[in-house]
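May I ask for a sample protein chain and its fold as tokens?
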Amino acid sequence: MSNEAANATTLVIIPTYNELENLPLIVDRVRQATPEVHILVVDDNSPDGTGTRADELAAKDDHIFVMHREGKGGLCAAYMAGFQWGLERNYQVLCEMDADGSHAPEQLHLLLGELDNGADMVIGSRYVPGGKVVNWPKNRWFLSKGGNVYINLALGAGLTDMTAGYRAFRRHVLEALPLDELSNAGYIFQVEIAYRAVELGFDVREVPITFTEREIGESKLDGSFVKDSLLEVTKWGVKHRGGQAVELAKEMVGLVNYEWNHFKKKSSWL
């Protein structure tokens, strides 16, 4: 880890695993778009040398810090470690951002602006009006959109994009959440954080963002996300809805049919 953080209020946490080419690009874009924020790169011992490259960037810029983890522990564990690092250093706002460029640093101000307007947590959403995805295969878009429809229906959180990973938190939200108890099944921790924040009464909002598929490297997402994550959501949904499980299933069938028809009509978006 590099030297201790200087005085600042906002920390952008960027987990990495084999992002040697992407990391300098995303760091430079963050520094250009929001020069006042600090960046913490959390590297899981990338075999391609990403951690070493992060150290080189940090050595030249006192707004950049690096955490080296012993192995590939997963995105959830990387963010939890980053949150803890930031909370210990008294950052007031902590943000999640992918290293691959899918989260545009140029739109970070939209999330931070909504915090300034009174929100406790802000999600950069692909599915609120104005949000969109770029360069995704149609089947992946439908899987993501359909999954989020199901999640919202099951949990009743009133959010359109609970799997999204572009987020900004006020520190008191993270301090209130049981971060050491989050599920690590797939990428479900993103859903669980949003769900628990809503359940605790925090003001959770969404702002539209443009999500762009990575151009360099390979996606870390695989089929386990669907299987593991939606299984967890179903368990929470049955608990949340209690005896309404049968009605939930019926509603889901109708909603899937609606979304599929809507998707076919709007396929030109993609």
